[in-house]
UniProtKB/TrEMBL annotation:
A Pfam family the protein falls into: LysR_substrate
Organism of derivation: Lampropedia aestuarii
Annotated GO MF terms: DNA-binding transcription factor activity; transcription cis-regulatory region binding
InterPro entries: LysR_HTH_N, LysR_subst-bd, WH-like_DNA-bd_sf, WH_DNA-bd_sf
Keyword tRNA-binding tagged: no
Protein name as catalogued: LysR family transcriptional regulator
Coiled coil regions in record: none
Length: 298
C-alpha cells in the first residue's frame, strides 16, 4: 500500500492523475488504478469524480494526512532521528440543526480541550443527506434522526434520545381534542423528505386523517413560529432543543397513538478509531443525559 500512498500524495500536490504520473514516472492509467485499489482497500471514496481535476473528498483529506505521516515514518526508518509529533487528528462531523444549536458546542468544547491537536469540520444538513455522507465515507460521524430502514453492517447506530411527537396549536384551541383539530384546522406539515416528516405522514395515513395542508417545511423552529402566529396547527417532535413550548402554544400528547423519533449517532465501524473520535462517541450520550436531566429539574 506504500506505493499507493505515495501516489496519493503526488496527486494532491499536482492536482491531476496525469500530472502526478509524470512527476513520479507512472502513466495516468497506472495512477488511476492505484487510487481505485486504495479506495477499495479502505472502503472509502477519496476523490470527487468531477472533471479532470482530482479533488479530494473530506475522507480523502483525512487519508492524505495519515499517508503523509506513514510515508514520513518509513523514510526515517533506520535513522537516529527522534520520532515526530503525531499527525493532527481530524473529525468530519455532520449534525442536524437542532443538535448544532444545543449539544454540539459542548461536545466540541470537551473534545478540543482533551485533544489539543484535533481539528473538526462540521457539516450541516438534513438527516438523509448526512447519513449518505457517512455511508460513502465523506463523514466520520453524523448526529441525525434514525433512518426508517436497516443500516448496513459496516455502520453503527447509537441512540441519544427519543423525542415524542405532539400536536401544537394556538392557545385559543385549548378546549379541543387533538384529533378533531387535525381533521378541521389548517395544517403545517413537517417536510415529508425528512425522516421525522415521514413518520408524521405514516401516522396520518394509519389513522385515516387527511388534514387541510397549507404549508410544508423542514425547519422545526419556523413551524413553531407559524403556529404561534395562528397560521395553523402542526405535528412536531418535542426536541432536546425545546423541552418546553412557548407560553402562547398549547400542546397535546397523542396518548396511546403516540410515536417518537430517535435522535442519535451513525458512524462507520473502525477497528482503530482515533482517540479524539473515541472521546466524541463517549461524550455525546453523557451530555445528552445531562441536558435531559436539567430540562425536567424543578
Amino acid at each position: 500500500m506504500l506505493k499507493e500512498l505515495k501516489s496519493l500524495i503526488a496527486v494532491s500536490h499536482e492536482g491531476t492523475f496525469a500530472a502526478a504520473g509524470q512527476k513520479i514516472g507512472l502513466t495516468q492509467a497506472a495512477i488511476s488504478a492505484q487510487m481505485k485499489r486504495l479506495e477499495e482497500e479502505l472502503n472509502l471514496v477519496l476523490f470527487e469524480r468531477n472533471g479532470r481535476a482530482a479533488q479530494l473528498t473530506p475522507a480523502g483529506h483525512t487519508v492524505l494526512l495519515q499517508a503523509k505521516e506513514i510515508v514520513g515514518l518509513c523514510q526515517e526508518l533506520g535513522t537516529d532521528k527522534p520520532p515526530t509529533a503525531p499527525a493532527q487528528q481530524t473529525i468530519q462531523l455532520g449534525a442536524i440543526a437542532s443538535l448544532q444549536r444545543t449539544i454540539l458546542p459542548a461536545v466540541l468544547a470537551q473534545v478540543h480541550n482533551q485533544h489539543s491537536g484535533c481539528r473538526s469540520r462540521i457539516v450541516p444538513g438534513v438527516s438523509l443527506d448526512l447519513y449518505n455522507m457517512v455511508d460513502s465515507g465523506e463523514l466520520d460521524l453524523a448526529a441525525i434522526i434514525k433512518p426508517p430502514f436497516s443500516l448496513p453492517s459496516e455502520l453503527r447506530w447509537t441512540t441519544l434520545a427519543s423525542e415524542p411527537f405532539e400536536l401544537i396549536a394556538a392557545k385559543k384551541w385549548a378546549d379541543h381534542d387533538w384529533e378533531s383539530l387535525l381533521r378541521t384546522q389548517p395544517f403545517i406539515r413537517y417536510d415529508r423528505v425528512s425522516f421525522g416528516g415521514r413518520q408524521v405522514d405514516r401516522f396520518l395515513r394509519k389513522n385515516k386523517i387527511h388534514p387541510h395542508e397549507i404549508c410544508e417545511l423542514d425547519e422545526l423552529d419556523a413551524i413553531t413560529e407559524l403556529v404561534r402566529h395562528q397560521v395553523g396547527i402542526a405535528l412536531v417532535p418535542k426536541t432536546l432543543s425545546q423541552p418546553h413550548w412557548p407560553s402562547d402554544i398549547q400542546a397535546w400528547s397523542l396518548g396511546d397513538k403516540g410515536f417518537h423519533r430517535e435522535v442519535g449517532l451513525v458512524h462507520r465501524i473502525s477497528h482503530a478509531p482515533s482517540s479524539a473520535m473515541q472521546t466524541m462517541l463517549a461524550i455525546w450520550p453523557q451530555l445528552v443525559q445531562e441536558q435531559m436531566a436539567q430540562s425536567v429539574a424543578p
